């Protein structure tokens, strides 16, 4: 359930607020091979929940109850995770905590799926959502990153999109040497009437994975978007870009040059990036350390381990 009520100015403008989300999750996850040969990277566990569940929970927490998963070959187990399991539920009748944890996965949101038959880029994947979302604005949540639930980002993005009717992004600051991994934007101050929502900026240009020399700033696109329905037409008109792929960044930049307003919220909360082994490990450790049930024991062990010979800690 959203903690944010409807925004009067958006209502006055008659603009709908996004109520659906799309999670592109068809990728091959070559960075995690061979673990991801048979298991989708979105199902790698962070403590006792798969990454994808944290992402669906983030959407649900923002009031989004309709989620389209864009899947690919060999990845249908992602959908099973959110399906009912009456046989398992029956066996867990005497274990209420586990039963509740299993049922929770079924009740978070209505999950729909569609297939991206070949992986031609993020823009190409999002294009497959057109018949599900139609003309309405919708959120996109990338399947390998999520934010800390106590520092939410999506509610403010949904609010901002309802007010502007345009494209809404989120940025985080990166080391200038790392621009080649992200979409990077140039910005200017946002209109005064939008700044009550948060640290809002107006985007004046976007480029996908620039070298540090080409990068217009160190503001990187975070894997959360709220997009108007006209993005689909822009995707159709977008040629392959960085890496030979049809990039969502390029489609959004096309809309911007044609007059669609593009704004972003600069996110200064905690972002977990599970897309690469190091970020995945950092995510597992941080979330485990904060868990109420096992955090204190884990932190104690971790501190001892880091200071022990076994960790190599004394050599560095
Ligand atoms: C994608 C986007 C990129 C964005 C990044 C965030 O890249 O294309 O603009 O900055 O996600 O994680 P990918 O990680 O799919 O290469």
UniProtKB/TrEMBL annotation:
Pfam families in the record: NTP_transferase
Occurrences of domain Nucleotidyl transferase (ranges): 20-287
Cited SUPFAM superfamilies: Nucleotide-diphospho-sugar transferases
GO molecular function: nucleotidyltransferase activity
Entry keyword set: Nucleotidyltransferase, Transferase
Catalytic activity entry: alpha-D-glucose 1-phosphate + UTP + H(+) = UDP-alpha-D-glucose + diphosphate
InterPro entries: GalU_uridylyltTrfase_bac/arc, NTP_transferase_dom, Nucleotide-diphossugar_trans
EC code(s) of this entry: 2.7.7.9
Family annotation (PANTHER family): UTP--GLUCOSE-1-PHOSPHATE URIDYLYLTRANSFERASE
Family to which the UniProt record says this protein belongs: Belongs to the UDPGP type 2 family.
The protein's name in its UniProt record: UTP--glucose-1-phosphate uridylyltransferase
Native source species: Micromonospora gifhornensis
